Amino acid sequence: MSTISSGPRPADYPNRRPEEAVAEPTVMTTADGTPLKVSLSRKLRRSKIKAMLLVAPLFVFLVVSFVMPIFDMLSRSVDNPEVPTELSRTVAAIEGWDGEGLPPETVFAAAFQDIKEGAQNRSIGRVATRLNYEESGARSLIMKTARNVRNAEMPANAKAFLIDIDEDWGDPAIWHVIQRESDPYTLSYYLAALDMEYNAQGEIVEKPEYMQLYVDLFIRTLWMSLLITFLTLLLGYPVAYLLANLPMRISNLLMIMVLLPFWTSLLVRTTTWIAILQSQGVLNDMMVAVGLISDDGRLQMIHNQTGTIIAMTHILLPFMILPLYSVMKTIPPSYLRAARSMGASQLYAFRRVYFPQTLAGIGAGGILVFILSIGYYITPALVGGQSGRFITNFIAYHMQSSLNWGLAAAIASILLAAVVILYLLYNRLVGVDNMKLG
Amino acid sequence: MKKSTLLKTVAAGAVTAVAFGATTAANAETLNIVSWGGAYTMSQQKAYHEPWMEKTGDEIINIDKSGNALAGLRAQTMAGNVTWDLVDMLPADALVACSEGLIEPINHDEMLADAPDGTPPSEDFIEGSLTECFVPQIVYSNIVAFNTEMFPEDKQPDSIDDVFNLEDYPGKRTLMKKPINNMEWALMADGVPADEVYDMLETEEGVARAFAKLDTIKDEVIWWEEGAQPPQLLADKEVAFGSAYNGRIFNAAVNEGQPFEIIWDGQVFELDGWVVPAGKLDKVKDYLHFATDTQRLADQAKYISYGPARNSSAKLVSTHAETGIEMKPHMPTYGPNFENALPKNDAFWADNIDELTERFNAWLAQ
Predict the structure, then answer these.
(1) The pLDDT of residue B21
(2) Which of B34, B53, B139, B204 is least enclosed, having the fewest CB within 10 Å?
(3) How far does the signal peptide extend, from start to end residue (chain B) (predicted)?
């Protein structure tokens, strides 16, 4: 309640003296005498807290299972603890090295001590693995040295001693790598994920062509996801239309046919496609039987891009149909009839009246299918062969097989960034508020 | 079929364990043992686990995770909650795990059983097979097998060269989706003698030559990732040739009657064995002592055609438990099979696996 103390008074303002209002403010109170304002804000606060408590479990769950892992992943993609902690003396000693020729004796002595300590604690393997990502052969260099210095006394000339163990210590290359990777953070994983590397001069260059892999995979993942989204729309639109417009009895049956595969295990659906599409499979057998193709000319439809596209389109189809259906269900059939009665042709009425109303459903289904397919990895792994693999398969590969978690995190972060950018773009074009998920 | 028998065995084992648990519950334990699954875990179940459970009342749980054992150990150690008690892994992985302190160093002569004639383990196991943290069980081999029905009787392949010969031996091939073995075979088929293969692969020229040879069959290759895939693809006649672990092919040929034949020429053999995750030594040392003694290793060869890693066990290898066939001719180490065999070079692969795998993946994607 603001008291008006200045400003022009409206003409129809009640004829009351201002002093009176200041002296005797009319305070509305509740039955027990608390001012209404206080009581109301108390009530509001209480319901706010209640609402917050209701949301709290979900919030905590999201933080623990979503925000923290993403943060962990982002930090892991630049995290570089191995060299600074395991070779701490060497890192301190090599800081001032100008990179010309070999580093001075103090660096060799520090390396001797670091490797000896690491060998005794059996922790040297971590740094050996890390350096091997940058320079093939670094692992055996470090491990061989570790075996040799484990029980050795500090020699008078550490340089000669190490080079005697393995002549690679006499090559500046390994020292450049150590110096470059001596920061607790590194860009190496991101470079590797973008098919780039440092050259001997420490400049960032493209990898040789026969080593390039990931950029093409990112592009392939994106265009195949787009294609799959488009195919689900093409197949799903008529189905959703039938679902929304057929009599209840038939459309229920149709709905079950859409949902039944949706409830079936992903692995079952994927392996079924293998049985159907493989070269000795059902489809090829049938085509040979009716004489469409010869026995030698069986088509290769699985373990390649075709396999991935067919299987994923099928698996993701319900995610397109359901949002479309929920939107189409709300469009009154009278609109189309009205358009027809005003002389529009069937096609024109559909194009100008019906289709624009389903855009919200297309938008929702499209983004749902696209984002799901960009992150899919089991189906491409099983049916994709070589040409039908996604970038996600390499994230899994680096998590499980090569154990290069830094690289896996870098690839995943780039994928995340790509999805966020595409989402923002999509929001700009379609508008997320216009989507309807059902 | 195979899986259901395995399940039955595991279930039977569990029932036995429970039954014995009732009588000797006092200090019976549960051991989580990680291995490769399939026919291989089956052979361990029969040869080691069942006698051990009968003897002690312990319960043994098989976990089929050896394919990702190193990743699993790292993750469990990082999380500070190691649930695996004993892990079956390859020696190259064991070297890495050992240098990272993930697994226990083992004093072989102190912890393992002597041979029946008193030979200490360090002399009884195959020379050079014991490393700091690793106890070998078997020698297995990576071979290429073929389906005999895919080729006319008078024209059956018999050398590694034939795998790369599309003209005389047409048909799809299935190879493991890793550079390991494939690079070696490509060079051998290109005329490099077995003992020069790794020297050759150390050079850029050798690597390029191996990829060039693989290029000649690239379009005809289906790449496999799980050990169970090649026998399946061969049985379905999806492929004519398939690289595989020799035990899996033996299992399919003998137990399932598949018309498979192994090309022993150019086999790449290596060891496989146990490692103990850090902090688990006290819990599993008795089992480890039992499971790696001479008799147990010899028993395992009754179920799968992998050679025992102890010299004293090799003499005891007899016949297959179910079919009664002589096992010796099916072992990788059997004289005629061993003529052109290549020992896998773990040190080479430890150094070059990262770079060559990347290059291999890039090559595949081209």
Answers:
(1) 42
(2) B204
(3) 1-28
B64/A contact by beta carbon, under 8 A = no
With bands split at pLDDT 50, 70 and 90, how would you rate the model's confidence at A77? very high
- Give tens-digit pLDDT for A280-307: 889 999 999 999 988 888 888 888 899 9
Q: Is A280 in Cβ contact with B236 (below 8 Å)?
A: yes
Domain ranges across chain B:
2-139+271-330, 140-270+340-365
Superfamily of domain B140-270+340-365: Periplasmic binding protein-like II (3.40.190.10)
Give A433 or B199, the one with higher predicted confidence: B199
- Per-residue buried b or exposed e for A218-243, using 16+ beta carbons within 10 Å of the residue's own CB: bebbbebbbebbebbbeebbebbbeb
Residue A137's φ and ψ, nearest 5 degrees, are: 105, -15
| Contact yes or no for A278 and B68 at CB 8 A | no
Chain A and chain B share a number of CB contacts under 8 A equal to 80
Determine the pLDDT at residue B324: 87
Residues constituting chain B: 366
What pLDDT score does B138 carry? 94
**Does the beta carbon of A190 lie under 8 angstroms from any beta carbon of chain B?**
no
Angle between helices A172-180 and A138-149 (to 10 degrees): 100
Token pair for B303: 């179920």
Nearest to A179 by CA among A110, A120, A125: A110
Fold of B2-139+271-330: D-Maltodextrin-Binding Protein; domain 2 (3.40.190)
Residue of A nearest to B96 (CA): A125
Q: What is the pLDDT of residue B156?
A: 93
User: Which residues of chain A have a CB within 8 Å of the CB of B350?
Assistant: 139-140, 143
Testing the interface with A: which of B133, B180, B353, B361 to mutate, by most A Cβ within 10 A? B361
Query: What is the CATH T-level fold of the domain A214-434, as seen in this structure?
Result: MetI-like fold (1.10.3720)
Q: For the stretch A159-193, what's the b/e string if a residue is b when 16 or more beta carbons lie within 10 angstroms of its beta carbon? A: bebbbebbebbeeeebbbbbbbbbeeebbbbbbbb
Q: What is the largest CA-CA distance in chain A?
A: 106
Categorize the per-residue pLDDT at A107 as very low, low, confident or very high, splitting at 50, 70 and 90. very high
Cα(A408)–Cα(A394) distance, rounded to whole angstroms? 8
Q: Which of B84, B265, B81, B44 has the alpha carbon at shortest distance from B165?
A: B265
How many other β-carbons are positioned within 10 Å of the β-carbon of residue B63? 18
Interchain CB contact of A280 with B (< 8 Å): yes
Q: pLDDT tens across A17-60, in order? A: 555 445 556 777 888 888 888 888 999 999 999 999 999 999 99
Q: Return the amino acid letter for B214.
A: L
Mean pLDDT value of segment B92-120: 92
Model's pTM, two decimal places? 0.79
Q: How do the domains of chain A map onto residue ranges? A: 82-184, 214-434
Residues 6+ apart with CB under 8 A from B19: none
Query: What percent of chain A has pLDDT above 70?
Result: 93
Residue of A402, A405, A407, A411 to mutate for B, most B C-beta atoms under 10 A: A402
CA A210 to centroid of chain Cα atoms: 27
CB contact B347 to A (< 8 Å): yes
A283 sits in which H/E element: helix A282-289
- Cβ neighbours of residue B178 closer than 8 Å, sequence gap 6 or more: B357, B360
B153 against A437, higher pLDDT: B153
What ipTM does the predicted assembly reach? 0.73
Q: How confident is the model at residue A100 (pLDDT cuts 50, 70, 90)?
A: confident
Contact A278 B238 (CB under 8 A): yes
**Confidence grade of residue B6 (pLDDT, cut at 50, 70, 90):** very low
CB-based contact, B149 to chain A, within 8 Å: no
The chain A residue lying nearest B222, using CA atoms, is A385
